[in-house]
Amino acid sequence: MTSTLQQLIQSFANNPKKLFLVDGVGASLSAFFLLALVYNFETYFGMPSLTVMNLAVIAICFALYSFTCAFRIKRIIRLNLIIICIANLLYCLITTILAVKHHTQLTTLGKVYFIGEILIILALVWIEAKTIKEMKSHK
User: Fold this and answer.
1) Got the DSSP string for 40-92?
2) pTM score, two decimals?
3) What is the pLDDT of residues 54-63, one digit of tens each?
């Protein structure tokens, strides 16, 4: 692992509320792009609007959870980080299942969008998992 990435993970392990902020901003951006682009331009992306709306609602719930953890939670932060990490993995799984289910309707742009979103979230999950592991080694 590169030293810059290790420093980032160490920084999150020392102050996990920063990671909740990153997660919350990411989930908010995901919801925004789903609603502003994918939902409004269904023809260009191909994902049915109800499916997009459901994914956006999930992203909004994740954003609220992450921001709540960042600003309100004082204890058991590691457990809350594990919860959002697992939730993000489940979101990737749900998105993958929905993309496969609707693959004949998805345009190339839709496929690129959903693959990109999944890859970005998986990168965040990897960082969250490394941070959780680093937090455990501090104890």
Assistant:
1) TTHHHH---HHHHHHHHHHHHHHHHHHHHHHHT--S-HHHHHHHHHHHHHHHH
2) 0.93
3) 999 999 999 9
